[in-house]
Each structure stands twice: as C-alpha cells, then as structure tokens.
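Bug #77: duplicate submission created two jobs. Keeping one. Sequence:
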Amino acid sequence: MPYTISPLSVIRETMTASNRLIVAIDGPAGAGKSTIARMLAEALGIPYLNTGAMYRALGLYGLENDIPLEEAPLVEALGTCALDLRYDGQATRVLLGERDVTDAVRRDEVGERASRLSVFSLVRAEMVRRQQELGRRTGGVIEGRDIGTVVFPDAPCKFFVTASVEERAARRYRELTGLGHPADLARIQEDVEARDRRDAERETAPLRIAPGAVVIDTTGKDTGAVLALLLQYIDTLK
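Kept job's structure:
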C-alpha cells in the first residue's frame, strides 16, 4: 500500500511553520476514531476537530425546530443556524449560536437524524465548505467520514480507522449500559449495519478509504496500542 505520510519531525516543523497541519482520520461509526483522534491531537500538540459533530448539531437543530428530513428545508436551516466547532485547548466544543451543545448532540436520536440528513448532497456541500474553512483556519487532527477523500484530499497524513461490526456494536452497548441506559445489543448491531449502508451507498461523498491512507483496524486493540501504532506510522513512514 502506498503511504503519503511525513515523519514526525517533518510534521512538527510544518506545524511550527504554518500552524495549519491537517491529519485526516476517516472511518465508520463506532470504530473508535474520535477517541484516537483526540489522543493523537494531544500527542502532536494540535487541535482536534470532529466534523461529524457538525451534522449532529444540524440534527439537533432540526429536532428542536421540527424541520423535516428533506433537503430544501435542511439547507435553509443551515443558513439560519449558527453552528460551529471551537477548540478550547483541551477539547472541541460544539456550538449552536453561543449555546454549548457538546453533550446534547451525543444523544442517539440526534445521531440517527445526523446520519439521515448527511445523505443530501447540498447539505454535504455546505458542510464541506465550512469544514475546509475551519481546517484552513485552525489545522489539526480532523475526523469524519470523508475528510481524506473530499474535504482535505491533499492532507499530508491520512488514516482510515475501522473495526468489525460486532466490536463496534459491543462498544456502543457498553457505553450505554455504563451510563445506566437500557440497551439491546442486537438492535444496536442492526443500527450500526444500517448506518454503514447509508454511509457507503450515498451518492455524495460515500465512505471510502482515501488514496494513500493507512488502514487501522482497532478490533481487539486498546486505545493506547492504536495510538502507538499511528505515531509509529507518522514517525517512520515517508
């Protein structure tokens, strides 16, 4: 597999020179990419930005304002809702106007709605424009579904983080039950599979492994081991 990753010393020099280094991390829901992206950003000393949270913020806005899951009203909503991601030096905060909705967008019904609205091409086009603007302004470890393929295809460092469906469903089950929420493992796995199909089959920016991306399978691995693997790739591959 051809890799297009600069060694860690070059990445740090680039970061110092431009402060806009972009590391692209893509992958399916539940693969652990958000956790790994946060850890990698901390290790490299650059911001972490979760672009999926932008779709979730729009989903939350739609739920709260009874906006139908149709392309035209959703695009109109994008013109009126001030959604933004801000890195506070430790974490990425999700904002609707001046309201912090970082926790609210994690709700299951918000995630489901975000998955459904993300299939609309005009919605994605506007989101991509905003994500590119954000990345050019701040740089950082940027994760989502189409960062390496569409949003920043020329990023010097690209990863595709994945895991088996069974593993991803089990992680979500443990997360929910750990929070005291009722959960059905079989239903969660069905939801994961349905979201995978939507992501892979949508006409605009389907989930794909970007050319030059390093594939990282997190099945059966702890986050420390995965982070070490990413840093090893970054530090040694040219």
